[in-house]
Structure formats: C-alpha cells, structure tokens
Design goal:
With about 600 residues, the chain is an alpha+beta fold. The protein contains 17 helices and 22 strands. Helix 4 packs antiparallel against helix 6, helix 4 packs across helix 16 and helix 14 runs antiparallel to helix 15.
Length: about 600
C-alpha cells in the first residue's frame, strides 16, 4: 500500500494493541471540550471517532494552540496511543478504550460557524438542501449513503453471478410512452428538434435482446417530469433487467434472490423465500390498492350477500345497478376523534366520494352498560341483516365500521385510502421491523380512459397479453385481457414492476392499433423496434426495480431524499446550486429557442 502522508490509521482502527505506537490521524473536529486547561477533542472521519487529548504537561505549546480549535475544523494530528484512565472508557465507541496524546497537529482548514448543528435533527428541509454537503456529514446520512452503496454492490454481484451483462444505454433518446412527461433537450445540430431524457431504457433493453445478449442489466438513471412526493424525484435510479428465453416464474424467482441479497447486504437479515403472490383483482378487492401493505389487517369486505335483499334502498339499489357495497371494520377505533373523522372524510372526497361523509356504525356501551350500535343506518337494517353484518365483520365492542356504496373502482380508491389512514391513526405499524414482500400478478393489459376516450396500456405498450387471452384481444374485448405482468411490493410500496414482452411484430402492431397509434405514428415512433422484430426477436421479459425506494426502506426512512446524495426539493429545485436557472439570450439563440414565459408583475407594477 502506498504510504499516505495525511494519516497512518483511520479514526475507527485503533485499539488496546496499538498502545505505545505513534500514529497520525486526519479528519474533522467533531467536538472540543476544555477540562481545566486539558483539551479533549473527538476527531471524526468517515469511519468513526477517536478521542485526542492535548495536555500542557506533555507539550505546553500545542496545548495552548489547541484552545483555538472549533467544531468542523479539518485537522491532522500526530500522537501516541494511550490507554484511557480507568473509569473514563467509552463502551459506545469502537475506540473507546484508548486516546491519542497529541505531540503535534496541523490545521488543514478552518471552519466557519455552521448554519445548523450536525448532532441534531433539522426540521427545516430547505436549509438541509441548501447545505446538503454539511447535511451529509451527519451520522444518519453517512449511514444511508453507505447502505445504498452496499445494496448497489450486492445487486451487481448477484446479477453478474446469474450471467447478466451490464450495458449502458443512451441518455439522449426519443420520447417514450411511459405515462409521464419527458424532459426535453434541444438538439443544437438539428434545429427545432429535441432529444428526450429516458423515462426508462425500455426499447433499448428489448433491442439488446434482439441483439442476442440474452441477459442484460443496468443501474440506469431515469427522468420523469412529474409532480413530486416522498417516494418520487424528477431523476431517479432503477435496476433495469431484461432476459431472453425466460418465463414469468423464472424472473420472479431470480428477482426474489436479488432482493434477498440486497437486504442481506443492507440489514444483515435473511429474507424468507419465496414471496407470497396475489392477483391484481384480489389486491384491489381486499386492500383497495395494487401495492397493498399487508403488515396489518383492515381488509375491505364485500357486503353483497348481506345487503342484496336489504330494506335499505341505497344499498340495495346500488347492488341491483351493478355496483358494490364494501366495508372496513376498524377494530378498537370507536374512540375516533372529530378531527380524525374529518380527515377520513376529506381523504374519501379526494378519492372520489360524492357525499360529504362516510357511512359508519360505531359500537360502544352506554352509561347503563348496554351495547349500542350508533349510526343513522342501523335502524334501516332488519334484525337478520344486523346479525349477518355482525357475524361477517366480527363486530365487537369499541369497533367502528365504515361503508361505501358505489362503483367497484370508487370503492377500491376510497376505502383503500381510508384503510391506510386508519392504520396511520391507530399506529398499527409504528416501530414494526416486518418486511412483507409480495408479488401482485395478473394485471389487466388495458384500461379505458374516459378522459381520452381511448384504451391505454396499464403498464406500457410492449407488455404481452396472456396467451389464453389473445383471442379476447382479437375479438375486441379489451377490458377482459390480462397481462403477463407482475409487480413486487414491500410494505405498501411498489419496489418494481415488469412483464413478459411482445416479441412478434404483428402482435406488437396490433397492440399499437388498439392504443390508437396510426400507421404513420407506428413508422415514425416505433419503426426501429418493429423492424427489429422482423429479424428474429427471441421471447423475452424483464423488470425494473426502484433502487431509491429499496434503499429508503432498507434504511428505515420515509422519503427517498434521505438516500440520494443531492436530491431536489418538493418543487423539483436544487437549492444548493440554485437550479434550474435562467439562461441568457445568446444560449437560447444558439439552440433556436425563444422563451414565451412572461413573469407575473409584482404588486404595484404594470404588466409588460
């Protein structure tokens, strides 16, 4: 190893066996303490802490100078490894049995007063983002970045061991139909034309299968111009995988092994295999979501058999009209507050509820000790209905039952949102370390968009219909066609999704036609892949995993910003570098672009 002029050891390496040795350390002053003229500092580098002591009796000159040291000064220290005095050892530190008695030191760089303290959690998100390089010095953030590194390294090693080849695909490409806005890049050498940053390398990885690589992967940077949330950023990273001559079961088994290796690297745990599987229909029926969190119950229950002959007209007419009546029993939640009830109703309305309040039945004892079913609905139910309702939902004292009557889609959306919020209110997963992996399979291939008055792909237009459902597609019964598609879910988050792809030109062309793509558009947008399928495309399929989300969950965080070194804030801005930013007229002119944006006039100014 080449000698390092800055250090002989790292700050977590020294132990009792090094006592008596002269060593050199470099790092940041984590903290400084004056104990009656004797200065103690904790010196920090990426690996840990070592206590350094400056004693006047050992070296009066450097002890005097050490009084000038401040937190986050960058320091090089040379000294002798010594045992700490009995009773002053620190069992919480790997180096807690020793200290360095300094014989000389050099300040490599002085630090100004920091805008925030590194040893405290900071609620001001914008301040953290502006000084992200300081935020990353904190133990929690350093741990997250290192955990992400271990996860990524484990993925590369696993896929290499499975015969996959890492290939980089272009960043500058054509717009792709992935369901979100593209980021566009003007092409200076081709005036009035634009590249798009890739939402995913979908077509390239399929073309690599046509090229005969058979097994490809990439740690791929992807870009989507969409509104942000805790698990979404405008630029993100996915582990992109594609393989030839492979079935859905092959991919599922391979990805389970991949995820197990990643979580082993991150958390040192063995993930039980195989993962459970659930159909898309069952997921929506029971949980109101295609990415259900199965760490808690609160399952949605169909109440058709209870209310199909009900005297309560609203429920009966809904069922007679082809709708559904669904319910959730929030056990032990009869003490719900007014504020919590208002919040549930707000969420239900946001999800599409047409009335102002969820129907409910609350079960509590009155002052006389009699069990009461408190609800405007209860009196409309016959005694048989009441008993059937109690039996089906297992209703007990202190339960509250929420109902929704309407379309199946609305019931899923509304009760799915309500279910998650009730779990949050009841703190059902607070402190949980469970990792509930799950596969959701048998997605619909197509969905009808009333807004667009057209059929759209549920995943993307290259997804293969199930072989047994191809006749339904030929017959125009598009809503009944299932896809060879699969999503892997963890604790209510979609970690990734994929499918077996269409590899025949005629079937791919048919899919485009169903989606309303004209022959001219097929040639212009997809001619390259349709041409490729003419030259011997193998059966193939794949999947993409969200690396940021996996790292977030492995680190126990609630936002992917906590596992990305330099993320954007919730307005898609980088406050540290002040981007995005304006560019001058000359740069725009070189790109043949003219801005039409007119800022709103400030108060008191006239619009220009």
């Amino acid at each position: 190893m080449i000698p390092n002029p800055f250090r002989s050891h790292l700050c977590d390496q020294l132990r009792k066996e090094h006592i008596g040795q002269t060593v050199t350390l470099s790092g940041w002053v984590n903290s400084a303490r004056d104990h009656g003229g004797v200065i103690f500092i904790d010196l920090r580098d990426r690996e840990g802490l070592t206590q350094v002591v400056f004693r006047p009796e050992e070296n009066a000159e450097i002890a005097a100078k050490s009084h000038e040291l401040r937190d986050e000064d960058v320091l090089q220290v040379t000294g002798v490894v010594s045992a700490r005095l009995a009773g002053t050892e620190n069992s919480k530190l790997a180096t807690g049995d020793i200290e360095i008695v300094a014989t000389e030191f050099k300040v490599l760089n002085k630090a100004d007063v920091l805008p925030f303290q590194l040893d405290r959690e900071l609620s001001n998100e914008d301040l953290r983002m502006k000084y992200r390089y300081l935020d990353l010095r904190r133990d929690r953030m350093t741990r997250n970045i290192r955990t992400r590194h271990r996860i990524t390294n484990a993925a590369r090693n696993y896929l290499d061991g499975q015969g996959f080849i890492e290939v980089e695909t272009p960043i500058l490409s054509n717009p792709t139909p992935e369901g979100a806005r593209d980021f566009l890049v003007p092409a200076r050498l081709s005036p009035s034309k634009f590249f798009a940053l890739p939402q995913a390398p979908q077509q390239y990885k399929q073309l690599l299968m046509v090229a005969g690589l058979e097994r490809y992967f990439q740690i791929a940077r992807c870009f989507r111009d969409e509104d942000l949330r805790a698990d979404r950023q405008p630029e993100f990273t996915q582990i992109d995988i594609e393989a030839s001559f492979i079935t859905q079961n092959d991919i599922i088994g391979m990805v389970e092994g991949l995820l197990a290796s990643m979580f082993k690297a991150a958390k040192g745990i063995d993930v039980p295999l195989p993962f459970p599987r659930m159909t898309y229909q069952d997921a929506l029926d029971k949980y109101g979501s295609d990415k259900p969190d199965t760490r808690y119950g609160l399952e949605i229950t169909d109440m058709k058999d209870v209310f199909e002959n009900s005297g309560f007209k609203i429920f009966k007419s809904t069922i007679d009209g082809g709708g559904v009546v669904r319910a959730i029993n929030a056990k032990g939640f009869a003490g719900i507050t007014t504020g919590q009830m208002i919040r549930l109703n707000e969420l239900a309305i946001e999800a599409g509820m047409k009335v102002k309040q969820l129907a409910f039945i609350k079960v509590e004892r009155n002052a006389e000790g009699v069990l009461e079913y408190k609800s405007p609905l209860w009196k409309f139910f016959g005694e048989d209905e009441q008993q059937a309702l109690i039996a089906k939902l297992g209703i007990e004292e202190n339960d509250i039952v929420f109902f929704y009557a309407g379309t199946w889609d609305d019931a899923c959306n509304i009760l799915g949102r309500v279910r998650i919020e009730i779990a949050n209110m009841q703190k059902l997963v607070e402190g949980s370390t469970a990792l509930n992996f799950l596969w959701v399979v048998d997605f619909p291939l197509l969905a009808y968009s009333p807004e667009d008055q057209a059929w759209v792909a549920v995943h993307h237009p290259f997804t293969r219909p199930k072989t047994e459902d191809i006749p339904l597609m030929e017959a125009g019964e598009y809503g009944k066609v299932r896809a060879e598609a699969y999503d892997v879910v963890l604790n209510g988050y979609e970690l990734g999704g994929g499918s077996i792809r269409i590899h025949e030109g005629d079937l791919q062309s048919k899919m485009f036609t169903v989606l309303g793509v004209t022959e001219e558009e097929k040639a212009h947008k997809f001619g390259h892949i349709l041409d490729a399928f003419r030259f011997g495309a193998p059966p193939h399929g794949g999947l993409a995993l969200g690396l940021d989300r996996i790292a977030m969950l492995a680190c126990g965080e609630d936002s992917i910003r906590e596992v990305i070194a330099f993320p954007k804030n919730n307005k898609a801005c980088d406050l540290m570098t002040d981007s995005p930013t304006s560019v001058d007229f000359k740069q725009l002119r070189e790109l043949y672009i003219q801005s039409t944006f007119k800022p709103k006039p400030k108060e008191g100014e006239e619009a220009k």
